Amino acid sequence: MQPFAEGGNRRCFIHPEKENRCLKVTVEGRAKILKQNAPWYKQLRSVESFDDNLREKEGYAQRALKKNHLNKWKHLAIWYGIVETSIGSASETELIRDHENNVAITLEKYLLTFGMTERIKRAISDLESWLRLTLILTKDILPHNIVVGDEDGQLILKIIDGLGSKSFLPIVNISNFFAKIYVERRIKLMHFRINQDLSK
Questions:
Q1: Is 181 helix (H, G, I), strand (E, B) or coil?
Q2: Quick one: which H or E segment has residue 31?
Q3: How far apart are CA 14 and CA 23, in angstroms?
Q4: φ, ψ at 6 (rounded to 5°)
Q5: Contact 88, 1 (CB under 8 A)
Q6: Which residues share a beta bridge with 156?
Q7: All domains of the chain, ordered by start, with CATH?
Q8: Along the 200 residues of the chain, how does pLDDT read in single tens digits?
Q9: What pTM was computed for the model?
């Protein structure tokens, strides 16, 4: 079975029995290498703390996603848990597809191919509104961690990676006031990265 996408730390496969689910498998030995190359103070952490699947599990366990908000999955791939596969543990998530049922392309690829169209502007604006409404915490909202899906003929952006907080202060995880400030900073950084992609 071949991955349909591959990053520095994980390979993504279509679930062999569920075509609308993705299996993210950590590259063998990658967590150990990440720990070895980390700054000395991060090397005090366990090897498991460098595993992207376990970090993703923590990201999905955040306070905002424990609430029964009707729209909490609108712009986020649903997470089904950690499962065992023949090639190792995998993070099982929703697989986002486009209007032709193909695996959705990333926002990065969309921008490089089509530029800043009116349709994608509306999709980005809708994602911003959702982030402010739900206060779901993300790390850097990078265009290659967002895919462009389809919902009733409209483009819809879905975050597929990078959940969690980069803040050193845990207060953003328990305070809406500080979470709002944090989310605004992530949105600002997202636009910076989008403009970087467009400048290419």
A1: helix
A2: helix 30-37
A3: 6
A4: -150, 130
A5: no
A6: 149
A7: 5-199 (1.10.510)
A8: 799 998 888 999 999 999 999 999 988 777 677 777 778 777 777 777 778 899 999 999 999 999 888 899 999 999 999 999 998 889 999 999 999 999 999 999 999 999 999 999 999 999 999 999 999 999 989 999 999 999 988 999 999 999 998 776 778 888 999 999 999 999 999 999 999 988 87
A9: 0.91
